[in-house]
Amino acid sequence: MMTQNQYAQYNTSRILTASPAELTLMLYEGAIKFCNIAIIAIEHKDMEKAHVNIVKAENIIEEFRSTLDRSIKVSEDFDRVYVYLLDRLFTANVEKNTEVLEEVVVHLRSMRDTWKQVMEQNKVKKHA
After folding, report:
1. I need a labelling partner for 94 at 20 to 30 A (CA). Which of 36, 39, 55, 111 fits?
2. CB within 8 A of 112, min separation 6: which ones?
């Protein structure tokens, strides 16, 4: 069984050796995790924990926005989605609304799953 320190070292190593595509996937998964933690925190009336985790999800979405390649036309569409998600996260945080957070999670899961498919398709193309 891994100790907490070993687990932290493993995670650090995993992040440092990840490809940009894998890092993006990790960020999607992190945003989903933070939203889910916030949902549970709200249900347990722990508003501070909910706030902290919603802000973590917002920070990930902001990172996605800041790293968009604006020279690619589709980046405008992604930016609009990210702005929408940030608006919904802000609303969820102000209202401590689990339904809004669940909506955000649905969108993030969809985006994550699409990203996984792109990664798989690119892996197949590289090996073909």
Report:
1. 111
2. 25, 28, 29, 32
Which of 3.40.1400.10, 3.40.50.300, 1.20.120.340, 1.10.10.10 would CATH assign to domain 20-127? 1.20.120.340
| 128 residues of the chain, pLDDT tens digit each | 667 776 566 556 565 667 888 999 999 999 999 999 999 999 999 999 999 999 999 999 999 999 999 999 999 999 999 999 999 999 999 999 999 999 999 999 999 999 999 999 887 666 55
Is the CB of residue 34 less than 8 Å from the CB of residue 60?
yes
Query: Token pair for residue 3?
Result: 């100790």
Q: Residues 93, 3: contact at Cβ < 8 Å?
A: no
At residue 20, what is the residue type? P
Q: Which residue has the tokens 């990203």?
A: 115
d(C-alpha 110, C-alpha 128), whole Å: 27
Would you kindly state where each structural domain of the chain is located, as residue ranges?
20-127
